[in-house]
Amino acid sequence: MVPAIKTYKIDYEFIIQNYTNPKLWDKIWTLLEFKKYVFTLMLDRIDVRKKQIYFEIKLSSDLEIWSNTKTKQLMYDIKNMNVDNLKHLINCCMKNLIELLEVEYIENEDDYHSIENSRYDEQKRLREIAENFLDENNVTNSEIRDVYIDYYVDNNETIYDSLSSYKDKAKYSRLVDLYLVFAEITKDEELKSKIIESQDNDVSEIVKEVENFMEYLESEEYTEEMQDKLEGI
Question: Distance between CA atoms of 190 and 11, rounded to whole angstroms?
Fold first, then answer.
């Protein structure tokens, strides 16, 4: 059975013309429903001086992740925008909410957590190398030590880039059905192409590279290589 897709026609003109009506302030408009994904819209606040209306768009889901609901705010300029502008902004926000939800989903994956833990181990090892160097050079001032160690770790850690690569590779490949439904409704051909291209991406190579690096992290060679990058006091 194909999951039902429910889209709702919203009278945005009416909202813009009646935004000062208190009856609309607690109103929640459903924009799209698909499976357990629900997009809603509501008025958030009004800036009378700048003549701007602020809306809140929410994406709710039943994903078993830390934060399975995402929200964004958008601003409608009463003097300089029209209904088409508002519709475009809403679509942009909806797409961004899917991306935010997907990032949360990716960051909840076991492989991502494994790389994240490896990053902490790398940072710890780098701190130890820097601390030993400072001890050997009798640097005891805590402020100097903190600045030196933080600078050294920031400049020499590598696994942070692996985390970024993992998320880039996984993008558009985790919430495929939701992306495709949204792309079809909004006729976003560019998004469709990105989704199709992403299906060939494989994060396993990144995971393996980090695993190999963690073996090297425990070696004397790594310690010597990192010691060569220590700067004199």
Answer: 28
SS3 141: coil
Give the Cβ contact number of residue 201 at 10 Å: 13
- pLDDT given for residue 60 in this prediction: 98
Residues 6+ apart with CB under 8 A from 194: 172
Contacts of 206 by beta carbon, 8 Å cutoff, 6+ apart? 115, 162, 165, 166, 169
Which regions in the chain score pLDDT beneath 50?
A: none
61: how many CB neighbours lie within 10 A of its CB? Answer: 21
Given this model, what pLDDT does residue 3 score?
A: 66
The beta-carbon contacts of 172-175 under 8 Å, at least 24 apart in sequence, are 172/102, 172/197, 172/198, 173/198, 173/199, 173/201, 174/102, 174/105, 174/106, 175/98, 175/101, 175/102, 175/105
Reduced DSSP (H G I as helix, E B as strand, rest coil) percent helix, strand, coil of the chain, to 5: 55, 15, 25
Q: What's the predicted TM-score (pTM) here?
A: 0.91
Query: Nearest 5°: CA angle at 132, between 127 and 134?
Result: 95
Q: Taking each helix axis from N to C terminus, what angle separates 176-186 and 83-107, rounded to the nearest 10 degrees?
A: 170
Q: How does DSSP assign 69-95, residue by residue? A: EEEEEEEEETTT--HHHHHHHHHHHHH
Q: What pLDDT score was predicted for residue 36?
A: 94
Give me the percent of the chain exceeding a pLDDT of 90.
94
pLDDT computed for residue 4 by the predictor: 77
Cross-strand partners of 59: 39, 70
Do residues 126 and 152 make contact, with C-beta atoms less than 8 angstroms apart?
Answer: yes
C-alpha closest to that of 47 among 15, 72, 79: 79
